[in-house]
Amino acid sequence: MPTVRELDGANAGGQFVRTALTLSVLTNKPIRIDNVRGDRSTPGLRHQHLAVLETMGELCDADISGAELGAETVSFDPGLESTDGATDWRGRGPGRLPGGEYDIDIGTAGSAILLFDSLLPLATVLDSQLSVTVTGGTDVPFSPPLDYSRYVKLPLLGQLGLTADYEVDRRGFYPDGGGQVTLQLAPSTLEPVDLTERGDLEGVRLYSTESASLADRNVAFRQAEGALERLALDEFGLEVLERRETTVASPSPGTAIVLRLDHGTGVAGFAALGERGKPAERVGEDAADALNRFLEEGGPRPAPVDRHLADQLLVYLALEGGRVRVPEATGHVVSSCELLAEFGATVDVEQVTETVDGETALVSVESPVDL
């Protein structure tokens, strides 16, 4: 009987739960999480966290307890069978997680993108194509918008060797959700992460989206214009590499804008969502302000990735080893590193560069988790 890894979520939120479940499947080790989402005003599993738990369980036919709304203790045992065959440079055998096709309905505007984020690392243990269709929110608060994941995160992970794509049937804005997106994920072998320097600045790509119900107000166009007027393009010698304005089907009115900064070693992304009563131009300005701050901060050795990517890349760092310079050692970064260490990764966080708002940090993993 394998030893159960005991985890405490008293000082963490939903990301702790999602990452712990991902690592449990990757390492094929059972876990128990107490005090689920303990630092939230409404602790315990919400719809979107329950959807991740149930999806992970379905993918590997896991043994689960606590799979109910509000549960503050969860046990999860993936119980995947070991496989025989040739091994790679880390001694791992062929993929042990079956692929297949799955349909998941979150039931609310809970984020489909966060669910997908928990599935993407599983490409390293897949034995065949995995297709997961999720109904829920695609562009909602406290989650990366769909276009951030599609045009910022996936291209960067593609540089590491991940093969993944989205097929979008309809968008789901807050509060109604109702979006439908399919993740196509293929078995992948990843390279170690090496993102320590920001390369020469190249330009900006802009993706502005409106629901069809707002098309007569030219919201997507106005968001884009607001962003471009606020961006410090001339100051930093940037050009607009791509500008895309899209009108989409959605059960709920809504808008989103994503800006992608291309530079010599990677990309960084910045986003904003529309709000009732907020001018479309201001939504674009908010995204541009975030990009401008990223360009202005960082001192002599600025980070190559934005704050959201910094946090999301850590699980890949733990899988294959490597280094990534992050804009700041936020609470999310620190708690994620502590969780990775619980699974056997040797993680080091070094404050290295003073900036106006703090310090960038270099996160490195010499010994990855044991898969």
Briefly summarize what is shown.
The chain contains ten helices and 16 strands. The chain has helices at 14-27, 47-60, 112-119, 146-160, 219-230, 233-236, 280-296, 307-312, 314-320, 331-342, and strands at 5-8, 31-34, 63-65, 73-77, 100-105, 130-136, 164-170, 179-185, 193-195, 201-211, 239-248, 255-263, 266-273, 322-326, 346-355, 358-367.
Instruction: Write out the strand line-up for the largest beta sheet, numbering strands in chain order.
Output: 1-2-4-3
Q: Number of DSSP helices?
A: 10
Name the helix and strand elements from N-terminus to C-terminus, one letter apiece. Answer: EHEHEEEHEHEEEEHHEEEHHHEHEE
Please state the overall shape, judged from the principal axes of the Cα atoms.
Answer: globular
The residue fraction in helices comes out at: 25-40%
- Provide the β-strand percentage band: 25-35%
Task: Provide the structure class.
Answer: alpha/beta
> End-to-end distance, in Å?
18 Å
The domain tally reads 4
Question: What is the CATH architecture annotation of the largest domain?
Answer: Alpha-beta prism
Assign the CATH topology of the largest domain.
Answer: UDP-n-acetylglucosamine1-carboxyvinyl-transferase, Chain
The total count of strands amounts to: 16
Unreliable residue runs: 84-94
Radius of gyration: 20 Å
CATH homologous superfamily name of the largest domain?
A: RNA 3'-terminal phosphate cyclase domain
Largest sheet: 4 strands, mixed
Keywords: ATP-binding, Cytoplasm, Ligase, Nucleotide-binding
Binding site for ATP: 117, 308-312
GO molecular function: ATP binding; RNA-3'-phosphate cyclase activity
Family: Belongs to the RNA 3'-terminal cyclase family. Type 1 subfamily.
